[in-house]
Design brief:
Blueprint: H1 10-17, E1 28-29, E2 36-37, E3 48-49, E4 52-53, H2 63-110
Antiparallel strand pairs: 1-2, 3-4
The structure holds zinc ion.
């Protein structure tokens, strides 16, 4: 076994160890729940990464709590679906209005009524 030739003084040892201190890590904020998370890591509280669920956080919970959370999620999703459907309908309406205007302009240009 290799051994050091001479005893290292306390000062020399401490000088070497002066660079070993740990630095505080940077924390980012979770976009969906707001908890502090490591940057470029999935949130361990809600399991989201880049607005997409990548970890099923409910897996480790007892059955009762899990079913509660899943039911709530399903409700929220149905609400979101209804919102999206409404938005699509309003968009369709505005587009049809625009087309009507275009048609009107064409008829004016053509000179018919
Ligand atoms: Zn989160």
């Amino acid at each position: 076994m290799p051994h050091p030739k001479k005893k290292l003084t306390n000062a020399a040892r401490n000088q070497r160890r002066s660079h070993h201190a740990l630095k505080a890590i940077n924390m980012a904020k979770c976009e969906s729940c707001g908890k502090p998370i490591k940057p470029h890591h999935a949130c361990l509280n809600c399991g989201m990464y880049k607005k997409r669920e990548v970890i099923d956080v409910t897996k480790k919970l007892p059955k009762k709590e899990r079913s509660k959370i899943l039911k709530k999620k399903a409700k929220d999703e149905s609400k979101d679906l209804k919102k999206i459907q409404k938005e699509v309908e309003t968009l369709k309406k505005t587009e049809s209005k625009k087309e009507d205007r275009k048609e009107g302009m064409k008829s004016v240009v053509r000179g018919d009524k």
